[in-house]
C-alpha cells in the first residue's frame, strides 16, 4: 500500500535566546494504511514536537516547520490554519496522554463526542448521538446512552481514555497519532487500551503513529519503529529485527531497560545521563556523552543514517558502510 503520510526532511526549530534551535532535525518517515509505526525515545527527543508539527500545532510566532509533510498529496508543512482545521480531528486525529487530554470538564461526554461530527460533517444532533453510542460500544463502554449524559469527572481514568479513543476515531480518520496514549494508566488498563487500539486498527485500516517512550508498547503494537535521539532518527527498521538485533548503542540501552516480568530485578536498568538540551551540541554524535563505545571521531564527526541488513538503518560510526562488528559481544551481558 502506498503511504498515507510521507514526512521528508522535517525540521522543526524554535526561537530561543541563543537563536533558532532545531528540536526535530531532518527526519524522514512514512506510514501506510493499516500500519502502526512506532516512534520511540526519551522525553525531550523530539517525538511530541514531530506530532505537533504534523497536526499544524506548532506556534508560528516561536516555531518554524520546514520540510515536507505529504498527506494525500498536500504538503501540510505550509498548509493554512483554515485547511488544518478541516483536517484535524477529521482526517488526522490525535490521542494524548491522560493529563494532557482535552476532555472539557464542563461539557457532557455526548456533547464532546458528537462535536467533530457536527462541525466536520454537519450532522444533526440525533444522527450524531446514534453514531456516538455506536463508538462507545466499539471501545468497550457499556451503558452508552447513559454515558452520553455524564461528565468526564464521573468516569475512571481508563474510561476517559476509551472516550478519547472513541472521540479520535468517530470521524474515521485516515491517520491516528497516539502520543503516550497509555502512559498515565495502570498496567492492566494499559494492556486493555492497547488491545482495543490494535483491534480498531485491524477493523478500520487507520494508519497509526504510536509515539512512546516505552519499547514494550512498540513490541505490542507496531510493525516498524523509528528510534529518535536528540531530534534525529538514530535507528529504524521492522520491530522484529530491531528487537532481535538492535544496532545503535542507544537502542540497546532502551531494550535493556524494558522491565522483564520473568526476571525480577531489584532496580531497572536505565541509560546513564540525559538527552542533551536541543542545540547544546552541534558536532559529532549526540549520544557520545552517554555512549560506552564512543571513539574520538564520535566527538567531532556526525554519523549519517546508513542502510544495514534486513532493511534496518542506523546512525552510528560502529556500522560505517553497513558493515561494522557492532557491539553485541561486549554490550549485552
Ligand atoms: Fe556511540 Fe560513536 Fe555510535 Fe555515537 S557514533 S552511538 S558515540 S559509537
Ligand atoms: Mg512527549
Automatic annotation (TrEMBL):
<dbReference type="GO" id="GO:0005524">
    <property type="term" value="F:ATP binding"/>
</dbReference>
<dbReference type="InterPro" id="IPR017871">
    <property type="entry name" value="ABC_transporter-like_CS"/>
</dbReference>
<feature type="domain" description="ABC transporter">
    <location>
        <begin position="5"/>
        <end position="255"/>
    </location>
</feature>
<keyword id="KW-1003">Cell membrane</keyword>
<dbReference type="Pfam" id="PF08352">
    <property type="entry name" value="oligo_HPY"/>
</dbReference>
<dbReference type="GO" id="GO:0016887">
    <property type="term" value="F:ATP hydrolysis activity"/>
</dbReference>
<dbReference type="GO" id="GO:0005886">
    <property type="term" value="C:plasma membrane"/>
</dbReference>
<dbReference type="GO" id="GO:0015833">
    <property type="term" value="P:peptide transport"/>
</dbReference>
<comment type="similarity">
    <text>Belongs to the ABC transporter superfamily.</text>
</comment>
<dbReference type="Pfam" id="PF00005">
    <property type="entry name" value="ABC_tran"/>
</dbReference>
<dbReference type="InterPro" id="IPR050388">
    <property type="entry name" value="ABC_Ni/Peptide_Import"/>
</dbReference>
<dbReference type="InterPro" id="IPR003439">
    <property type="entry name" value="ABC_transporter-like_ATP-bd"/>
</dbReference>
<protein>
    <submittedName>
        <fullName>ABC transporter ATP-binding protein</fullName>
    </submittedName>
</protein>
<dbReference type="InterPro" id="IPR027417">
    <property type="entry name" value="P-loop_NTPase"/>
</dbReference>
<keyword id="KW-0547">Nucleotide-binding</keyword>
<dbReference type="InterPro" id="IPR013563">
    <property type="entry name" value="Oligopep_ABC_C"/>
</dbReference>
<keyword id="KW-0067">ATP-binding</keyword>
<keyword id="KW-0813">Transport</keyword>
<keyword id="KW-0472">Membrane</keyword>
<dbReference type="InterPro" id="IPR003593">
    <property type="entry name" value="AAA+_ATPase"/>
</dbReference>
